[in-house]
UniProtKB/TrEMBL annotation:
Alphabetized Gene3D superfamilies for the sequence: Cytochrome c-like domain
Coiled coil: none
Keyword Heme: yes
Protein name per UniProt: Cytochrome c5 family protein
InterPro entries: Cyt_c-like_dom, Cyt_c-like_dom_sf, Cyt_CIE
Positions of the Cytochrome c domain: 24-92
One Pfam family of this chain: Cytochrome_CBB3
Swiss-Prot/TrEMBL keywords: Electron transport, Heme, Iron, Metal-binding, Signal, Transport
Superkingdom in the source lineage: Bacteria
Position of the signal peptide: 1-20
MF terms in GO: electron transfer activity; heme binding; iron ion binding
Length: 100
């Protein structure tokens, strides 16, 4: 029984590290989006992200670059590239193919 638990734990850790957060998320988005500071859509919370995702990735990218209400332009990374920001958005919104 104990052994099984250990195996599950190892598997979970491997899974977690394979899905490690993008650098931009860790350094520039996590501060607010992990816990939903200022009513920001929360990390991996489909209910928060669904109404945002319907706008399309182009629009969401524009929101981040220009800033939106409590979110400063570029999140905390005004120097991030479009690709880095998109990667961070995809990571926050979930991992499913529907978000690619
Ligand atoms: C200082 C806090 C803060 C940081 C840092 C931050 N955000 Fe946000 N973010 C917010 C808030 C608050 C909202 C909700 C804005 C609104 O719609 O009122 C938001 C909304 C968003 C949205 C939805 C925009 C829309 O049009 O609906 C996206 C996408 C987003 N953030 C991506 C990012 C990314 C990517 C980063 C990191 C590069 C980031 N945010 C960093 C606070 C932050």
């Amino acid at each position: 029984m104990k052994q099984q638990f250990f195996l599950v734990l190892v598997a979970a850790l491997c899974h977690w590290s394979a899905n490690a957060a993008p650098v931009a998320y860790e350094s520039a988005c996590k501060y607010c989006h992990e816990s939903g500071v200022g009513h920001s859509p929360k990390l991996h919370n489909p209910d928060d992200w669904a109404p945002r995702l319907v706008k399309g990735m182009d629009q969401l990218l524009q929101s981040v670059k220009q800033g939106r209400n409590a979110m400063p332009p570029g999140g905390l990374c005004p120097q991030c590239s479009d690709e880095e920001l998109l990667e961070a958005i995809r990571f926050m919104a979930g991992h499913g193919p529907q978000y690619q």
